[in-house]
Amino acid sequence: MALGKTQTVQSPAGAPFGDRRCRFELAARPDSVARARRLTRKHLSGFALCDDTCDTAALVVSELVTNALVHTVSRQIVCDLTDDPVAGHVRIVVRDEGPGQDGTGPHPHPARSGDEDHGRGLLLVSAVSHAWGAQEEGLGLMVWAELPRSVRAAAA
Question: What is the Cα–Cα distance from 80 to 17, expressed in whole angstroms?
């Protein structure tokens, strides 16, 4: 896939979450943040999740993709979305290729007092998520968040 193109992959039928999981790959460039928001809303709406859940997920994806762009030298960012009705949450995973722009691995953390320019996005992710975390994966980082799941009421 050429950089700058978005590839969307749905889980195969019979996978543990069937069609309730999607993955998309983005070129690591600024316009990919808006594309990630749009794809997140599109896929989660297709899972019959309520607008609030879709909007919150789009916000989280936006923050995590932005962090990958700002804090790493990745060429590609991968987003995975999973709607897990059994656990009652939507899981968002954003993977970058690292390493950090200073040559070290990225280590996300919420903003500290006096850290006015960076880290507020992770505070936001923490505030709207049931849980979130990060782990090194190869040279890059996998950052995940779980949001409460709400389903649209069926039309009468």
Answer: 12
154 pLDDT higher than 50:
no
Question: 88, 89, 40, 47: which is closest to 64 by C-alpha?
Answer: 40
For 29-107+119-148, CATH number out of 3.40.50.1950, 3.40.50.1970, 3.30.565.10, 3.30.450.20 equals 3.30.565.10
pLDDT in tens, 116-134: 556 688 999 999 999 999 9
Domain range list for the chain: 29-107+119-148
